[in-house]
Design brief:
3% helix; elongated; mainly beta; disordered N terminus; ten-stranded parallel β-sheet; single chain; 24-stranded mixed β-sheet
């Protein structure tokens, strides 16, 4: 055939479909080596859909679908893959993708871009428990006029996305806001190992890096970040950028060991309803030189923040728990040891109601505290001092049986706090502690 695809070029097969190649599905079928998987070459939407359907029934453990031209994929959902498949654009740009329904993982390679328009098109839709691994570049479509640019990735109904590549919201023409990097809803999960970023606006605000949202009847979602999540900017610099992560509607969970940052002069993580469960061992920061707040939770009294710091945590900017809630928790946890300067409670970490030590780690408290922090030591060791002459607690302490209160200062230190519970008290420093 001189290398030209006719219909679907169907190679590296262990066996032929239905015992023979049909003109519609398999012109150019070749017999493979025993360990190889099926490869399908497609050049339009109909061939892509036929290739997924054929691969589902071909008996191979996985399949590769390679595009031989740039083309538009129809708005209806693609057939649900029932085994692992890879879709590779081979340098061509395709748009957009929609997977709907519980099936096997689909891996994306190449470039996928939503269409530009008055309202930009989404780069990819993942719905109803579908699962996608992105090793590609996905971008929402550019907007125009006063409308929104397209979201890079839209997830709903318990969908899963593992991003090892790049996902960006669409940019915009004058007057159109940048699109969000990803919108995550209704019990969905995003694991980001790459880059997720809001698109830039032109004279208006950029897009949110990741928007976690849920209606009253929907479930909370989960974001695990080891890569970078960043809010978009106004490319003209006139307006502030957008937040790195916005969470609302339910008590979503964020586990960060990477970088989450706001756009220019903007909050890193922001929640206005539902509350937030946030565990950080990475970096969370306000964006740009004018940004002052890294994390903010605000709203009704039922909207609370649980912030757990683990070893390696860096927070650049203020952390504002909800001033109207009485259930905001500040926690030192994890399995690895670290140090925390208690003088940051009050000036930087504000509005927390409960202070906890969890996990098997030892957290050493340094600095001189000015705020009342009644610590509950549930597990591991809360250590006053780290071998020097600083480290203090203002407030009472309760130790569970698995918890230890330790003192590690080099001077004579008077400790007048009330200590309750069944845990252990240890003097491990070179100084003297007077109880």
């Amino acid at each position: 055939m001189g290398g030209k695809a006719v219909g679907i070029l169907f190679t590296s097969k262990k066996k032929l479909l239905a015992g023979a190649c049909s003109v519609a599905l398999a012109m150019g079928c070749l017999l493979p080596s025993p360990a190889s998987a099926a490869t399908y070459l497609v050049s339009n939407d109909a061939q892509l859909r036929a290739a997924i359907t054929a691969a589902n029934g071909d008996g191979d453990p996985n399949a590769v679908i390679r595009m031989t031209a740039a083309f538009t994929i129809g708005v209806s959902a693609l057939p649900t893959p029932t085994k692992p498949m890879t879709i590779d654009t081979q340098g061509f740009t395709s748009r957009p993708l929609r997977f709907d329904g519980l099936g096997a993982d689909v891996t994306l390679v190449g470039t996928f871009v939503g269409a530009a328009g008055t309202v930009g098109e989404r780069g990819i839709n993942i719905q109803s428990q579908a699962s996608v691994i992105n090793n590609a570049s996905i971008t929402g479509g550019d907007g125009g006029g006063s409308s929104q640019s397209g979201v890079g990735a839209n997830l709903t109904a318990q969908a899963t996305l593992v991003n090892n590549g790049t996902i960006r919201g669409g940019g915009s023409g004058a007057g159109a806001a940048g699109g969000g990097g990803a919108q995550v809803a209704d019990g969905s999960t995003v694991i980001n190992n790459g880059l997720m970023q809001g698109g830039d606006g032109q004279g208006v605000v950029g897009g949110v890096g990741v928007f976690m949202i849920a209606s009253p009847l929907q479930a909370a979602s989960t974001l695990v970040n080891t890569g970078t999540i960043r809010g978009g900017n106004d490319a003209t610099g006139v307006n502030a950028g957008n937040v790195g992560v916005r969470a609302q509607g339910k008590r979503h969970t964020i586990i960060n060991s990477g970088i989450i940052e706001g756009g220019d002069r903007t909050i890193g993580i922001f929640s206005t309803s539902g509350g937030l469960q946030l565990t950080n061992s990475g970096t969370i920061r306000a964006g740009g030189a004018g940004g002052t707040t890294a994390i903010q939770v605000t709203g009704a009294a039922t909207v609370d923040l649980t912030l757990e710091l683990q070893a390696g945590s860096v927070i650049e900017g203020n952390v504002l728990a909800n001033a109207t809630s009485a259930a905001d928790i500040f926690r030192l946890g994890g399995a690895a040891n670290d140090i925390f300067d208690v003088s940051a409670i009050g000036p930087q970490y504000q509005n927390f109601d409960t202070y906890e030590k969890t996990g098997a780690s030892t957290w050493a408290l340094t600095g001189t505290g000015t705020a009342v922090t009644n610590w509950n030591i549930q597990d591991g060791t809360l250590q006053v001092g780290n071998g020097g002459t600083s480290g203090s607690v203002i407030g009472n302490l309760t130790t569970a049986s698995a918890g230890t209160l330790a003192f590690n200062r080099s001077d004579t230190f008077s400790f007048n706090n009330l200590v309750l519970g069944t845990g252990t008290i240890s003097q491990i420093g070179t100084g003297t502690t007077i109880m």
